[in-house]
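Example record

Each entry pairs one chain with its bound ligand, zinc ion.
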Amino acid sequence: MQQTITRSPVTITIRQEPASVRLTGYFYAVDLGSHVRPQYHYVGINAECNCDLGHSCPAVDAVRAYLKEGGKRADRPPFGYYPVRPSTCPICNAKTASDMSLSSPHRGAGWVCPSGTSHYWKHRAHISAQRAGSQP
Ligand SMILES: [Zn+2]
Ligand SMILES: [Zn+2]
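Structure tokens for the complex follow.
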């Protein structure tokens, strides 16, 4: 004899694990949960994630929410030091790309813009001049 099983509508709840944010130096380390690949994202103080999504990464939203709730802010890097490349060139405003060969422990992350390396060095010269000028 067959039995009829009446099922009540099943609600599948996809558990949204809250992203956890913690500070690591000049970065926010965001754990988006084990269901997300990659799980760990590093968001810089320029609100850009180190993953391919950049500004539109959900980790950036997680950092915003974290700060809204009174989370501790990442340290401001010293003047002229870039823990992450600026997303746009300070000289021509074009999008930048990382260039590891220009990175250094003193200057931070290296980058190039459509001009090649010339705006990078122009900007560094500008920083040096400002540094020299601000000294008493
Ligand atoms: Zn990301
Ligand atoms: Zn440029």
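The mean pLDDT is 87.
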